[in-house]
């Protein structure tokens, strides 16, 4: 009996090496599963923290339900494009729709619609996304005034419209979420003033000759080249004082 037990201990039915390997495999697998689940939970929490519920948008148009759904989708797409939702994005969103309505346009395939933005805040992202006025196409021009105002020009028809926010956010007492909701839901006339821009239609974007800077060797548009000591230099290589001439 004793002999038999000894025999069993020294020669197990399943080799110890294999047992250890199986146990190790199970432990590793369980740990991986645990880590995966933990990561999943963290991701879920992060998503929940970042995305407050998207507020309902006003109904407009004749087919109420459908219009509301379409607006909601556009708003969500703007949030995706911009990266977050905020009152500034809501301003741009409403500006884009007000411009569409008043200028009877959808979006700009080329340069027939030009937007001149007087700020570089969040709202311009909604305008870029919804009206296709983009820096790359040359139909988005930044006129740095720090004002919540946007002008639109229709080249062909000669139409122009300036939309300016008349319901500013009160930084001291205002609630951002409530303000965003106001911007998204109030009628156009309660949040914007509409007028003719005091400035003219900007010239069409030009394609300039390419010139090589004689100092750094990089190429740039001819219009951005400066002459310095008889050399053609790019703006990065031109001494600062010359740029004020
Ligand atoms: Zn923003
Ligand atoms: Zn240079």
Automatic annotation (TrEMBL):
This is Formylmethanofuran dehydrogenase subunit E. Residues 81-192 form the Formylmethanofuran dehydrogenase subunit E domain. InterPro entries: FmdEsu_dom, tRNA_methyltr_O, Znf_DskA_TraR. Its EC number is 1.2.7.12. Residues 207-237 form the Zinc finger DksA/TraR C4-type domain. It comes from Candidatus Electrothrix marina. The keyword Zinc applies. Pfam families: FmdE, zf-dskA_traR. The lineage of its organism: Bacteria, Pseudomonadati, Thermodesulfobacteriota, Desulfobulbia, Desulfobulbales.
């Amino acid at each position: 009996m004793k002999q038999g037990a000894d025999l069993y201990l020294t020669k197990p039915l399943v080799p110890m090496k294999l047992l250890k390997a199986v146990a190790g495999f199970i432990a590793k697998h369980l740990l991986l599963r645990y880590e995966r689940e933990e990561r999943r939970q963290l991701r879920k929490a992060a998503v929940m923290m970042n995305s407050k519920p998207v507020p309902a948008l006003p109904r407009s148009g004749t087919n109420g339900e459908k219009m509301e759904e379409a607006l909601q989708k556009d708003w969500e797409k703007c949030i995706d494009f911009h990266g977050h939702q905020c009152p500034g994005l809501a301003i741009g969103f409403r500006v884009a729709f007000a411009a569409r309505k008043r200028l009877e346009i959808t979006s700009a395939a080329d340069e027939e619609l030009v937007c001149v933005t007087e700020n570089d805040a969040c709202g311009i992202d909604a305008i870029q996304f919804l009206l296709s006025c983009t820096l790359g196409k040359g139909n988005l021009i930044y006129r740095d005034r720090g004002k919540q105002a946007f002008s639109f020009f229709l080249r062909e028809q000669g139409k122009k419209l300036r939309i300016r926010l008349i319901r500013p956010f009160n930084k001291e007492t205002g609630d951002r979420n409530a303000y965003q909701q106001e911007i998204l839901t109030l009628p156009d006339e309660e949040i914007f003033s509409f007028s003719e821009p005091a400035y003219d239609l900007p010239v069409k974007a030009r394609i300039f000759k390419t010139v090589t800077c004689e100092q750094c060797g990089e190429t740039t548009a001819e219009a951005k080249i400066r002459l310095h000591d008889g050399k053609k230099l790019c703006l990065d290589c031109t001494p600062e004082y010359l740029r004020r001439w």
